[in-house]
Amino acid sequence: MPERLAISVSVNGERFERTVEPRLLLSDFLRHELELTGTHVGCEHGVCGACTVLLDGDPVRSCLVFAVQADGHQVTTVEGLAPTDAAALERVDGHDPPLHPLQEAFRDRHALQCGFCTPGILLTMIPFLEENPVPSEQEIREALSGNLCRCTGYQNIVEAVQLAAERRGQ
Amino acid sequence: MTTRLFGTDCPRREDPRLLTGQALFVDDVHLEGMLHVAFLRSDYAHARLVNVDVSGALEVDGVVAAYTAADLGEYWQPGPLLVSPPPTIEKLTFRHATQVPLARDKVCHVGEPIAAVVAHSRYQAEDALARIRVDVEPLGAVVDIEAALQPDAPLIHEQFDSNQASHVIQEKGDYDAACARAALTVQRRFRFDRGASAPMENRGVVASWDAKCGELTVWDTTQAPIPIRNGLAHMLGIPESQVRVIAPFIGGGFGPKIMMFYPEEVLLPWISMQLGWPVKWIEDRHESFFATTQERLQIHDAELSLDAEGRILGVKDSFLYDAGAYNPYGLTLPINAQCTLLGPYDVPAYYSEFRAVFTTKPIVTPVRGAGRNPGVFVMERLLDLAARELGMDRTEIRRRNFLPPDAFPHDHEIIYQDFAPLVYDSGNYLPSLEKAAKMIGYDRFLAEDQPRLRAEGRHVGIGIVAYVEGTGIGPYEGARVSIEPSGRVNVATGVGTQGQGHFTSFAQIVAEQLGVELPDVEVITGDTGKFHWGTGTFASRGAVVAGNACHAAAVKVREKVIELAARSLDSSEQEIELAEGSARVKGSPDRALTLGDLATRANPLRGAVTPGTEPGLEATAYFGPERGSTANGVHAMILEVDPETAMVDVQRYVVVHDCGVVINPTIVRGQIVGGVAHGIGGCFYEQLVFDSGGQLLNASFMDYLLPTATDVPNVETDHVETPSPYNPLGIKGAGEAGAIPTGALFAQALEDALQIPGLEVLEMPLSPNRLFELMRDARSDE
Asked: Exposure string (b/e) for A6-32, b if CB count within 10 Å is 16 or more?
């Protein structure tokens, strides 16, 4: 039986203390220990990008990070993107949850079909837009090229990122 | 009138859940006490199983159970033949061998499951796989489909006398006579190889047996939850009503999730019943390259005979089709290839013959396009070659051969995959071609741009091809529509959904009839506990067949609403209109009742419901088309080839598509663009490469490349709308169209860009390496 290690990870602003096997992947820790199942696992070898989360603000493939490596760090998952303040809750029409501006742009531009790759793409594009608030189409495509999407052909994702950038600039 | 919803670009109802991580996928199901299953799979393509010993696995920490075929007793049965061969084809031989839950006597492809281990975590279950001992006696692999038919080929299914699974001949007219009077006959060999469907979500099953209630619940990444429910109930000997199969949000399907009774799908429910605990298996990406079905290896020897004006006199085709290790899907794919080859053209004489061949490779079932892609490739390539020989423009040869608008319904006099004659319902092909040529600037490109670019030393080419797609086949789908006292409308239908936007498009259909807003309509798909009649999502049929069932049920509910409103408002039925969630008397806005009020009145707690009527505002309806509806389109592209590196840059891509009446243009466009991306993958990036031992050499996303955001161009789309007369909404399917003609288009544009004498692109997919070889070989022949 492998030794188990105590870790303390802050996820979406909430601190979680757990004892885990050293080999437990961060993706499995988030999904199965914390039941934050919005982080999706598509390839388990770091290619598809579906499992991307933010580790201290930087995008990482959670299938290539061990949970123990996140000890003492801050993780953001797709569940932590939408605003939860009272003003945001008031804005919505009663049927749908409040959305982050990039999530709104994805809905407005039909940038998702099955939606499986979407959380990883959101978490790749959010820090990208922080670094590059006025990206060209080519820059968006390059930043997106580490995330696979089988449904959309990427076009509407590129347009959604452009839309979010435009709205932010306004 | 309420704003029109049908035919408009409403944002999708399902998106907020998907965008916030709240949508339930199969791997998101967590149940108390759930155990995890891992499978030991064959390392050999073909071998006799001598002994399987799982005793070591049982010693591993956390392991609860381990099973081999011997443990399954009478539950060990080959899977059903899902699609029998069309009884309506006369010249047809067919024999089938289907997959088994766990290999017992031999293994027939790498990745075939041999044993299952159940443990408290997936990590522990995988640890235990390493402790299973398997003794095998290797047999020769069967990889090449021509060699597979040789008398000395290793025999895969020993109950048969050869590896031939089927031989089918379909013909119309007299091809030999047509050929005899032809001014030109072109003949070539074409090869279209295997690719993976590669949805981002792998397959998975969670099964939970509740012994106290005698109920089995299964969450399954299937495209067909209802047939899975019925089949599992039969296999497990429990009533259908006690089995609930849920296909929740599914992370893409593209065909292989319509394959039914995969070994894991059959075993997980059985294991849950054995152990009395819920069990989960989630396929990993590496497994998926072997354990999930694949498609497309066909080798065609085809010829096209034409008169001196380029009019088609006849087509002759003989092809081999790789069925893989087992053929539960019957002849759907080769028949699709055989039929779709005819395309939008008037072909007076056709002789088509194929042989389906067993190989020791993963099972073949439909992947987006489902056999149509090779058919279109063959026909379009033959037309290109003929045009070149005749000195005729590529668009002109197509124009001359299109079926004219008054030719419909058009009977091709052969049988389609749905056993019905191949009859095109409607079509108007020329406008699609003209539009696409105009959008891409075909004439100007050839007259001005290309000569200028060639003078600059650049190799830029244009392609333009046409295709049809038989969509929306039967047998039927159903839907139930009901109005709650809250005024909310519930729609339940049996098809599963894998990203096609059914939660929105079906809501649009129903909202239109009932005069309510989109957020008031809740659509449930793919849960047999909510609706249990239907077949599934495949063959570009969801919108056509289930969409029309939703429409029919909504019309029935509308009639009930109007009847009750007229009675309650002391008015005539003709005077009632439905708008803004109410039924009201036209011209008297104060005489109105909300749909919620009416729903309450239709289900009273006291007082009698009139005998012979039904309570509530609810109706169930079914739609079964007599035959499918035929969509069509024209794709055009401009690409540039780097003659040194053989890298290809697709610079423009135009699609003009006719899928009849469109429910939601944004969703349809999304389907088309996504299909094109899949198609481009199948042209230049994606090829499953097997060695002579049947080992897949590129079973990871590091080696099997899906196109990325820098590989797929923006796709410019436009529509032509020729309604289908075969369904009340006039719609045709759109799910696969984007991927079908891409190979043919890519080949034509490449030849146009390179213009190397003797360079013919007769195979798909290519890769930079393979294209480089073709260029080198053609140049060395010069």
From this structure: ebebebbeeebebebbeebbbbbbbbb
pLDDT computed for residue B2 by the predictor: 47
Suggest the residue from B10, B36, B200, B703 to mutate for an interface test with chain A (most A CBs closer than 10 A).
Answer: B200
> In 10 A of CB B171, how many CB atoms?
16
> Cβ–Cβ contacts within 10 Å for residue A121, how many?
28
B130: CB partners within 8 A, 6+ apart: none
What the block records as the tokens of B49 is 């199983």
Q: Residue B318's pLDDT is what?
A: 98
Spatial contact of B290 and B174, defined as CB atoms under 8 Å apart: no
Question: Within 10 Å of residue B1's Cβ, how many Cβ atoms?
Answer: 8
Contact across the interface for B16 and A99, Cβ inside 8 Å: yes
Q: How many C-beta neighbours within 10 Å does residue B455 have?
A: 8
Q: Where are the beta strands (DSSP E) in A29-105?
A: 52-55, 58-61, 74-76
Q: How many residues comprise chain A?
A: 170
**Amino acid letter at A68?**
V
Distances (CA, A) of A135 to A122, B634, B707: 16, 33, 22
Complex-level ipTM: 0.96
Q: Is A50 within 8 Å of chain B by CB?
A: yes
Tell me the pLDDT tens digit for each residue of B693-705.
999 999 999 999 9
pLDDT in tens, B503-546: 999 999 999 999 999 999 999 999 999 999 988 877 778 888 99
- Please report which helix (H) or strand (E) contains residue B164, including its range: strand B164-172
Beta bridge partners of B37: B118
Q: How close, in Å, is residue A156 to chain B by CA atoms?
A: 8
User: CA of A111: which chain B residue's CA is closest?
Assistant: B670
User: Kindly report the CA angle at A38 between A32 and A40, in degrees rounded to 5?
Assistant: 80
Q: Tell me: pLDDT of B73 over 60.
A: yes
User: Is the minimum CB–CB distance between A43 and chain B shorter than 8 Å?
Assistant: yes
- Residue B726, token pair as written in the block: 């075969």
- B522 close to B489: Cβ distance less than 8 angstroms: yes
Beta-sheet strand order (sheet of B477-483): B521-525, B489-493, B477-483, B617-623
Per-residue confidence at B199, pLDDT binned at 50, 70, 90?
Answer: very high
Average pLDDT along chain B: 95
Residue of A38, A116, A144 with shortest CB distance to B200 = A116
CA distances from B756 to A30, B620, B648, B761, B776 (A): 55, 61, 16, 11, 10
Pairing type for strands B184-192 and B763-764 reads parallel
Amino acid code (one letter) for B678: H
Of B518, B480, B556, nearest in space to B663 by CA: B518
Q: What's the one-letter identity of residue A111?
A: A
Strand duo B576-579 + B521-525: pairing: unpaired
Determine the distance in angstroms separating the CA of A169 from the nearest CA of chain B, rounded to an integer: 22
Q: How buried is residue B572: exposed, middle or buried, by Cβ count under 10 Å (0-12/13-18/19+)? A: exposed
How far from B507 is each of B502, B561, B757, CA to CA, in Å?
Answer: 8, 18, 55
Residue B8 Cα to chain centre, angstroms: 25
Under the phi-then-psi rule, with left for phi > 0, alpha for psi from -120 to 50, and beta for the rest, what region is B756? Answer: beta
The answer to whether the CB of B221 falls within 8 A of the CB of B205 is yes
- Interstrand relation of A74-76 and A52-55 (parallel, antiparallel or unpaired): antiparallel
β-pairing, B489-493 vs B521-525, is: parallel
B443's CB contacts (< 8 A; 6+ apart) are B437
Within 54-73 of A, beta carbons closer than 8 Å to B belong to: none
**Cis peptide leading into residue B475 (ω within 30°):** yes
User: Looking at beta carbons, which residues of chain A come within 8 Å of B201?
Assistant: 40, 42, 114, 116
